[in-house]
Design goal:
Keywords: Cell membrane, Cytoplasm, GTP-binding, Hydrolase, Membrane, Nucleotide-binding, Receptor
InterPro entries: AAA+_ATPase, P-loop_NTPase, Signal_recog_particl_SRP54_hlx, SR_rcpt_FtsY, SRP/SRP_N, SRP54_GTPase_dom, SRP54_N_sf
Distance between the termini: 12 Å
Catalytic activity: GTP + H2O = GDP + phosphate + H(+)
Radius of gyration: 21 Å
Mean pLDDT: 87
CATH topology of the largest domain: Rossmann fold
Shape: elongated
Largest sheet: 8 strands, mixed
CATH superfamily of the largest domain: P-loop containing nucleotide triphosphate hydrolases
Protein name: Signal recognition particle receptor FtsY
Bound molecules: guanosine-5'-diphosphate
Organism: Coprococcus ammoniilyticus
Low-confidence stretches: 308-324
CATH architecture of the largest domain: 3-Layer(aba) Sandwich
Helix content: 40-55%
Strand order of the largest sheet: 3-2-4-1-5-6-7-8
CATH class of the largest domain: Alpha Beta
Length: 324
């Protein structure tokens, strides 16, 4: 178990390393400055933007830093490093209640555009919940493409859970209706619903998601509804834009950022969380079934910005051992 966790964490670190190296390098050089002045703040700003933290979030963090520097009368640039890590970590902190849905009968609506890793994420979540002893069911409510249904079935088989589906072109609401009946009849703990992410047709998308929610609350009032948006970390500011657009059409309770093992610039997780003010709950760090991790803000921010104290972080991870 410990070995498994260690391996997991190592992968997160390696995943982020492509970005991490350049961020850590420029971060270190910023702190090599002789004093805190406008140039120092500007260089810091550039580093954050380079890390994909987005303009608004960067501004907020810098403003916050300036206040704290003033309050504590800090003179040394190096002393700002810990302050910055703390500011970002506090902002990213995930309340424990964010995972309450895992302890209740829950229906999880998984939203996001095609290609971001929705199917894969559903498969990974299904496998993890099943492994932890829960009864899991998957519903293929993206009926737009036959391939999407087939691919989800492959993941359901891999995870060892059942899937409710209709044919291509069927009404997604009908799939949800059947899935909810099945979940109730089978005393399912977690029902994961795949949805179609056609952002170019916002009105349809909004109606479709609203209809699904109506069916769930009418037919399964005891269930807790959780909606998770999946975003591809490698698409940077596009992911941010998708998050904005989805939040305009539906409620979002949590964020999953995938492909952090690729060329993603880790700052995107910070930007998206700040923008939506919704917690990042999971991160995808590979294509395999166990490559999904609960988001750990402390380990993440440290992995991104600091030289990284390996021993301490591994202990942190072991102590933070997730319930999954
Ligand atoms: P969907 O269209 O949103 O359902 O996306 P898929 O689940 O089909 O994923 C699209 C591609 O992204 C597939 O090739 C997946 O293997 C890949 N993918 C998904 N999550 C991750 C991840 O965390 N890391 C990596 N490297 N690839 C991923």
């Amino acid at each position: 178990m410990a070995e498994e966790k260690k391996g997991f964490f190592k992968r997160l670190k390696e995943g982020l390393s492509k970005t991490r190296n350049s961020i850590v390098d420029s971060f270190s050089s910023v702190f090599g400055a002789s004093h805190i002045d406008d140039d120092f703040y500007e260089e810091l700003e550039e580093t954050f933007i380079m890390a994909d933290m987005g303009y608004e979030t960067t501004e907020k963090v810098i403003e916050n830093l300036k206040e704290r520097v003033k309050e504590a009368r800090i003179k040394e640039p190096a002393a700002c490093k810990e302050l910055i890590i703390n500011i970002i970590r506090d902002q990213m902190m995930v309340d424990e209640s964010a995972y309450d849905f895992e302890k209740k009968k829950s229906v999880i609506l998984v939203i996001g555009v095609n290609g971001v890793g929705k199917t894969t994420t559903i498969g990974k979540l299904a496998a993890q919940y099943k492994k932890s002893g829960k009864k899991v069911l998957i519903a293929a409510a993206d009926t737009f493409r036959a391939a999407a249904i087939d691919q989800l079935k492959t993941w359901a088989d891999r995870a060892g859970v059942e899937m409710i589906s209709h044919n291509e072109g069927a009404d997604p609401a009908a799939v949800v209706y059947d899935a909810v009946s099945a979940a109730k009849a089978r005393n399912t703990d977690i029902l994961l619903i795949d949805t179609a992410g056609r952002l170019h047709n916002k009105k349809n998308l909004m109606d479709e998601l609203a209809k699904m929610r109506r069916i769930i609350s009418r037919d399964y009032p005891d269930a807790n509804v959780e909606s998770l948006i999946v975003l591809d970390g490698t698409t940077g500011q596009n992911a941010l834009e998708q998050a904005r657009q989805f939040s305009n059409v539906t409620e979002i309770d949590g964020i999953v950022i995938t492909k952090l093992d690729g060329t993603a610039k880790g700052g995107i997780a910070i930007a998206i969380q700040a923008e939506l003010n919704v917690p990042v709950k999971f991160i995808g760090i590979g294509e395999k079934i166990d490559d999904l991790q609960r988001f750990d803000p402390s380990a993440y921010v440290e992995a991104l910005f600091s030289g990284f104290d390996e021993d301490r972080s591994e202990i942190d991870i072991l102590m933070d051992e997730a319930d999954l």
